[in-house]
Structure formats: structure tokens, C-alpha cells
Amino acid sequence: MPKGKFIAFEGPDGSGKTSIIKVLGPMLEKEGVEAVFTREPGGSPIAEQIRELILDIDNTAMDYRTEALLYAASRRQHLSETILPNVQAGKMVISDRFVLSSLVYQGVARAIGLEAVWQINQFAIEDHLPDLTILIDVPADIGLERIEKARGSRQYDRLDREALAFHQRVRQTYLDLIPQWENIVVIDGNQSVEQVSLECFETLKKRGMIK
Ligand code: TYD
């Protein structure tokens, strides 16, 4: 049985990854691709429990390094329980976020440092990296606006400046890290979900991820 492919979707919050992956599902199915859709943090029963701990808004006392370790722990479990067995079984595994998220969010946006965050993640993933990373790029104000709209908030025309600065840092870091990242493709997320999904599908074909 030939091994399957491991694809990671990355991008700032509000880039539309989750919606794009949903549209991509039926496109892949039509092509006869057996795909498994998963996400981080989470993606396996134990990793989902770690996700709840990380994203619990009542955990205000959580130290940034504790958070980074939890993301790495969740990733390890996700890799061993979901990603690797499915890739071994010949399936395409599509994960909404992977290790690049930790480098961007914990390493730079939370200022722990790229080297330290890379080290703990190396321990977690050993040498398992995606066959292809698709980065959905979107300007920070547009990403933030989409999040506010999805929340049903009427605040999106008066964007919080601190939140905007954080989103800008996240977006810029993704772009800055591209030259250091192997097998990465950037797709303009500032288009309709259908158009972006189509470009993702074509990229998967062009890059030999779909036979
Ligand atoms: P995500 O699941 O994309 O958000 P949602 O389900 O709410 O659309 O990710 C949740 C948050 O976790 C997001 O703000 C990015 C952050 N994150 C990190 O900071 N580091 C990581 O390693 C990962 C995987 C996510």
C-alpha cells in the first residue's frame, strides 16, 4: 500500500482555512481521494482534551511557555494517533494547522523565540513534516473583520488596535518564514471561498499530491 500525503493548512485567524477545507472535501471525494480532515490543537481524543485546556478562556493564568508545551503535546498525540496511521494506510491527511502555527504564534507573536519553540516541537514531531503546507494569506484587517462578523459583533468597523497589531504580527511572521519552510505554497485568501478552494485543489494536483 503506497503511503498517503500529509497536507497542512496554515494562515492567520480569519484567513478562511476552515471554510476552504469544507469546500475542498467534496472536490477531493469526486477525484476519488480518500481524505481525513483533522485540526490542531486537537485532532484525536486526547489532543482534543488538551485543546479544551489551552483554549479555555478562564485559564487566564496560563504561562506562554506552558501553552507552547501544551500545543506541542497535543501535536505529538495528534501525530501518533491520527496523522501517521492514516498516512500509513494510504490516505490523504489534511490538517487545519500544524507546527508552523506554533512557530508563528508562540515563537514570534508571543515572543518566546523561534529556536526554543522549534526545539520543543522537534521533540514532539521528530522528523515528521507535511508533504505540502498551504498558507492562506489574508491582510490582518480583513481577517479580523471576518472574525468579528462571524461573532455577530457590530464592532468590526472599529477594530481593536491591539488585536490588529497582533494579527499584523502573525500575518507578517507567516510571510517572513516562507523562505525557511520547505514545500510551502501561498494562496491569496482575499477572494471568495469557492475561488480559494479551487486554487487549493489545483495546487494539490500540480504538486503531485493527487495522482
Ligand atoms: P483554530 O482552531 O484555527 O481556531 P478556531 O477553531 O477558533 O477557528 O486555532 C485556535 C487558535 O490556536 C488560533 O488562534 C491559533 C492558535 N494556535 C497557536 O497559537 N499555536 C498552535 O500551535 C496552534 C495549532 C494554534
General description of the model:
The chain has helices at residues 17-30, 45-55, 64-88, 99-109, 114-125, 140-150, 161-177, 193-206, and strands spanning 6-10, 35-39, 92-96, 132-137, 184-188. It has 211 residues and is α/β, with parallel strands linked by helices. The protein has a 5-stranded parallel sheet with strand order 2-3-1-4-5, sandwiched between helices. Helix 3 runs parallel beside helix 5 and helix 4 crosses helix 7. Thymidine-5'-diphosphate is lined by residues 13, 18, 39-41, 71, 96-97, 101-102, 105-106. Thymidine-5'-diphosphate binds next to helix 4.
Small molecules bound: thymidine-5'-diphosphate
CATH fold title: Rossmann fold
Order of helices and strands: EHEHHEHHEHHEH
CATH C-level class: Alpha Beta
Side by side, the strands of the main sheet go 2-3-1-4-5
* Gyration radius over CA: 17 Å
Q: Estimate nothing, just give the exact number of structural domains.
A: 1
How does the overall form come out from the CA principal axes? Answer: globular
Termini gap: 14 Å
- The number of helical elements comes to 8
Q: What is the residue-mean pLDDT, rounded to a whole number?
A: 95
The amount of beta strand, in percent, is: 5-15%
Structural class determined from secondary elements: alpha/beta
Main sheet? 5 strands, parallel
